[in-house]
């Protein structure tokens, strides 16, 4: 196994930061007990762009993604230090209402996880929990979210059928629709297509490309072609650090760091 220099880094900063940055971390560290999984990551995510998080297994991609809307809070023994800046607020602060914050920063997981409810019920559940009861408004949000997730045409006549009867790809797009029904600014996706066949994968990818008009997207993926196809920026994670963060085209064609070059060319380790 080749040893890589963890000090060799290329991490771009976005200019004109206030205008452009949707969410950023500053010296973020995450520990699971004694295991420091994230070792001081500072990254900025540009508004209305897709950023891919890539890197070998166990290097901290999912941990980092989950910390962006404090999902790691749910795991006991976890400690998170550093800033997570969103709209001028450090959302890593204990004063932040996490429930409220997650309306702005939504998440879609690796395996489609629809509730055991109708398609309509999946999308309206959280809205109702947040106090929305107007039927017309709920109907409109269901329609617009399903349209944005490119699922409306396939399900519009079956909205009251079980979500569990949908295909895996459709279920994942329903989970995307469910997340965007809350009108978040930032959408976090952890390998959203890894459990899907190639056709469903390409539909999810198309959906994400269309969604970036309205959302800022961060996606963990093991699929290099996928990262190259859909993302504007790519961050290469290695052993809890980010060694390279740049425009995707540069990361894949002219990486500046040896470890990235080996990883994207399939010669890693
Ligand atoms: N819930 C958890 N409890 C304890 N340790 C964890 C937990 N989740 C991840 N870890 C540890 O944190 C480190 C980073 O794991 P993480 O899942 O974030 O990496 P990853 O890059 O997303 O991996 P993969 O590509 O395999 O999904 C690993 O050492 C892992 O064992």
TrEMBL record:
GO biological process, one term: phosphate ion transmembrane transport
Keywords recorded for this protein, A-Z: ATP-binding, Cell membrane, Membrane, Nucleotide-binding, Phosphate transport, Translocase, Transport
Record flagged with keyword ATP-binding: yes
Superkingdom per UniProt: Bacteria
Pfam families: ABC_tran
Coiled coil: none
GO cellular component: a single term: membrane
Entries under InterPro entries matching the protein: AAA+_ATPase, ABC_transporter-like_ATP-bd, ABC_transporter-like_CS, P-loop_NTPase, PstB-like
Entries under SUPFAM superfamilies matching the protein: P-loop containing nucleoside triphosphate hydrolases (SSF52540)
GO molecular function term, any single one: ATP binding
ABC transporter domain: residues covered: 23-264
Name used for this protein in its record: Phosphate ABC transporter ATP-binding protein PstB
Organism: Vagococcus intermedius
Lineage per the UniProt record: Bacteria, Bacillati, Bacillota, Bacilli, Lactobacillales
């Amino acid at each position: 196994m080749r040893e890589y220099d963890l000090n060799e880094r290329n991490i771009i900063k976005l200019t004109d930061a206030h205008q452009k940055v949707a969410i950023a971390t500053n010296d973020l560290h995450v520990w699971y007990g004694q295991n420091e999984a994230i070792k001081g990551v500072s990254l900025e995510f540009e508004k209305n762009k897709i950023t891919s998080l890539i890197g070998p297994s166990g290097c901290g991609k999912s941990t980092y993604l989950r910390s962006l809307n404090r999902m790691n809070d749910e795991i006991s023994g976890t400690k998170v230090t550093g800033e997570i800046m969103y709209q001028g607020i450090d959302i890593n602060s204990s004063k932040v209402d996490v429930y409220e914050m997650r309306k702005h920063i939504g998440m879609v997981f690796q395996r489609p996880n629809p509730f055991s409810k109708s398609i309509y019920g999946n999308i309206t559940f959280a809205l109702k929990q947040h106090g929305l009861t107007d039927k017309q408004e709920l109907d409109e949000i269901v329609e617009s979210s399903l349209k944005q997730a490119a699922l409306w045409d396939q399900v519009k006549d079956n909205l009251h059928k079980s979500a569990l009867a949908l295909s895996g790809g459709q279920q994942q797009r329903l989970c995307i629709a469910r997340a965007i029904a809350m009108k978040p600014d930032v959408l976090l996706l952890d390998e959203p297509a890894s459990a899907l066949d190639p056709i469903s994968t390409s539909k999810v990818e198309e959906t994400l490309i269309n969604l970036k008009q309205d959302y800022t997207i961060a996606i963990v993926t093991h699929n290099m072609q996928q990262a190259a196809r859909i993302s504007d920026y790519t961050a290469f994670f290695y052993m809890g650090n980010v060694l390279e963060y740049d425009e995707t085209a540069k990361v894949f064609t002219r990486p500046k760091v040896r470890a990235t070059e080996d990883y994207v060319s399939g010669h890693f380790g």
